[in-house]
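Exam revision sheet. Question 4 asks you to relate a sequence to its structure. Input first:
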Amino acid sequence: MSTSPAYRADGRDVSREAFYALACDPRRSVVVEACAGAGKTWMLVSRIVRALLDGAQPQEILAITFTKKAAGEMRDRLDKWLREFAAPAMNDATRIEELVARGVPSAEAPAWVEALAGLQRRVLDSGRAVEVRTFHAWFAQLLRAAPYELLDEIGLDPEGELLLDIADHRSEVMRRFHGALLRDEARRADHAELLRLRGRSQAAKWFEAVLARRVELELADRAGVLQDGVAPAVTEGAAPPCAEVGNAAWRHDLLGLAAALAASAKKTCRDAGAALQAALELTDAAARFAAVWAALFTTTGTPRKLGDLPGLDASVRALETLAARQHQHECHLEHARMLRLARVLLAEYAAYKRERGLLDMNDLEHGALALLRDASLSGWVQERLDARIRHVLIDEFQDTSPLQWHALHAWLSAYAGAGGGASGQRAPAVFVVGDPKQSIYRFRRAEPRVFGAVREFVVEALGGCVLECDHTRRNAPGVLAALNTVFEAAQGEGAFLGFRAHTTEVDADGAPALFALPRVPRPAKGDKPDEADEPRWRDSLSEPRREPELQRREAEAQMVAEAIVQQIEAGVAPRELLVMARKRAPLRLLAQALQRRHVPCVAVDDATLIEAPEAQDLVAVLDALVSPQHRLSLARALRSPLFDAADADLLALSRRAGAAGDWWGALMNWPGEGDALARARRLLAAWQEAARHLPPHDLLDRIVAEGELRECLAARVPAAQRAVALATVDAVLAQSLALDGGRYATPYAFVRALRRRTITVPAPDLGGAVRLLTVHGAKGLEADVVFVMDADPEPNRTETATLLVDWPVRLSAPRRCAFLYNENQAPAELADAMAEEQRERAREELNGLYVAMTRARHTLVLSATEPSRRTAAASWWQRVAPLAAPWPQAAATKAVPRPEPAPELIVLPRWSDAPLAPPAPAPVDDSPASRLGQAVHRVLEWRSGAGGELQALAAGAAAEFGAPAEEVARVAGRILAHPDCARFFDATALRWAGNEVPVSVDGSVRYIDRLVRLDDAGVDTWWVLDYKLQHRPEALEAYHAQLAAYREAVRQAQPGARVRSAFIAGDGRLIESGSA
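Answer key, structure tokens:
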């Protein structure tokens, strides 16, 4: 296949050099649509470098992305490049190559070499940083600067605590909601009718949709379109359409038809005539209509075959029309009922947040939109943004929601037109990059059609250009050939419009790239079940239920596990094996299969902490300590690796407890010594006493240490699972300090919070493990070999209890919001909107396949289990498997477990009883410079703590260390008064500060002179400060290495945080040393 690059600018083919010259030009507004593996983040960060070279100050550059992880990676890449460009190891020829690669013309590049080499120094000397934020962080920054009058009007507290997951608060919000219903008789009647018609589970789905899409509902309500989301079929107060069956004209026609049917020779017709006659005698309008319908229509809604009688066809058509109107009427009533309940729920949710000082993500988006749209404030906001921001860069724009786009549009549209439009200012240079083919987050309200809107805006309003790149640097030709074949076929069906054939930078090696494991078959209907599937007696306490469907899914997982083992034995590193599935269930089965084969694996998606066995064991220990009557918690604690009691021990304990069932008392009086229960008796008794006065973290720390929990896990957990188990213990300890700011003072409260809250923690980074992810979690990752499991899943069932939101991106509010019970039975007026919604879902399904296939660098392998039914839409397996080669020897491979790796033993050196000379004492530096340094350290420590008058502090420190007081006061005063350093000692500006902070570096304890947390140019930042009073501390490389170690220790303690470090010299200068 062709490997010639595929680059376009404004619809015309261009060279690679011309493409990057346009993309990286910091003075030009650009929208880049780039395929997977094209280097989108590389382009964005390169554009930041070019903007800095063009004279922009770091704080004048705003880069927006969607996750904190992506923002951190962006910062890390920029910092890494700046260090490399400044490093003496990089020569000028290499710097010229880097400039040319970023769009600088070859003839001009030599003139920029010196500026590129000095770029890191210029950025560090500025004392500011490029603003790399998530959308929500930027919105929060805007709101913190907004007038309180506006925030009060929209009900926001800018200092409120951010609510990341409503699931933790849903039960309390619903209790408030039900309390409000009890106080309002009309709404209570609405709720009762809803439950009668739809049931509690369906009602709960609707209420969850209300909370998830509340901003769309509120915007539609303000726009006046919410009430008639489902239009009425009759005027208010009129009888329902079904009542028309009782009027004279209808009765005349139907009675005539009943008589004709009764006179027929066919029994079916006579029965229908009798049923029709009886229906017309009913007095209740709804019952009469239903009976008339049942007489002439089947239960599936098709007309009965009653022959060619006069008036039959006309009556059937009239009834179908009337039924559609009746359905419209019922849907309108249900929508109105749900709308009234939704308003009560949203009012209670808003009150709940106000009372607790909470904000959610929707509040930030809604508040930013209100601020940027407000006629009286938009000019003020515009002026502030004009003064601060010259460059706006947005990554992964296909994941933007309509609300986020309208907030951006409200700001940027003021620059539209000549001379800066209404703002009168020069528009910031806008760089937008994304790929609509990779939009897979509609469940988070992402709208890929927004990408088309921003393309039009940048071209028409800002005079920018549109670039398109279909050239990847990731995928091998074999993978790309399959990708092009699959999606060109989908485009031909009209299911994947906008696809262009991709090319690749990777050389062809001739090896097959696409494989399929044998699909697990499903028995044909009517086949006799296997003997293993027939019902039989089983001991439910010792033998789990074996569902046939689960067995088929396990068979698929076994085949994938064996294929992974083959790859590892063939030399593929486990880290280069990536397994994906739509849902987590297949990945769990695969994890079990890999663990049986002693293959290390890790689920890279964030995991729920309380679902981990090790976390459940620790919670059981705490629960048993604070609630000794909880026998189940005590039993779990005893059976855990911490105590390793056997079933026989529990049975003995149960017998000793007797009829009273006091297991705790029986354990505390256990007579034995040296066994598991005796050890548990001793430790649990001590821990119960400690639980009376220790906070959760200290108690857990004592349990882990005294119980030797880490050692127990290392001894009992298989090697493939050991690192994850140990990381889980650390995560529970960390949550005891981090959960709600560590506010839980008792173990009981902490246990309740852990069980009530949905706490997710990132999986440990295991370099030598197979990665298991959902497709959503794998976006942005890649591997040499990629497996896609469950490629032929069961079709999704029809959605019920949904909220249909029709929001064309050109409109400032949704055009329609409608509560629908059954998507297959939408009213006729909503048919187009529902069809569009289903088309978008189908497109997202194909987007998921695109994301999955483009993760593979060299090899892509599919597996599947045959589904029980089919739909018209082709599955991933049906689209890709016909192009794949059979996996070699997969069917013949025996599922033989690999032996567990032998543990690596640490061998102690041979013992020698020869006497050792005591170590020589370390020399003590008692020079005048050393005494002066220690005294200045002490003054800065005292001054940053309780404060005090500088001269008195200097005198005290000078007396302690034998240094001249005047010199101590002079040096300390220079540092405290210097504009670069004063902020580090201003208690009012600091979020946290500490002196002589201990950190672990290479297994030993070191001490940071001063560690502070503050708002640094709007970015939450940790500063590692090292006092070096000599004139040029930065000249010694050892000092930089020391600061780098401290910085890394802080970064590990504060993952994802921005960490900076610097020397404070004796003349008060702040000398920054790298960043992380």
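Marking note for examiners. The radius of gyration is 35 Å.
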